[in-house]
Amino acid sequence: MQAPLSPAAADTVAAAVLARHDGRQDQLLPALHALQDAIGFIAPARVPAIARHFNLSRAEVHGVLTFYHHFRAEAPARCRVTLCRAEACRSMGADRLLAHAQRTLGCDLHGRSADGSVSLDPVYCLGQCANAPAMTLDDAVFARVTPARFDALLAHALEADRPAPTHPGGPSFLPEAV
Question: Which of 8, 29, 126, 154 could form an S-S bond across to 134 if both were Cys, CB 3.0 to 4.6 Å?
């Protein structure tokens, strides 16, 4: 994960991103995605400038930002965990995995660990129904996740800011130890 930008650098990046979008309202979603990709989140203080650029009300921009679960209003945690809550994963142990993750991290869904380094969020289907339960760790998808594997994946990701291990062909089916 990239280091957070200073406020001045974030302002410069935001201005450059908005300049690449001509202000047509159909460009709002692509601009919001580009802003979040570049800065990591879209601060509420940025909403008025976005609204002016697209000739929208602040309420309209706020509505889009809060409707789509992808957008964040604050800097993301160093590690972002999402656990699948769809039926296939739940039938294969996702509730047990969630309970373990909550105990391990000391937070509920939509929360952060006590030190703020890990966020825990639900996701409704990662397309790994045949390999349930599934989770993501940052942007990597992992299938057939057990509580022990969750612990190993998380420990690996937190170790010296190393990214989670991935498999180049798609969902990670790494051995239980990792």
Answer: 126
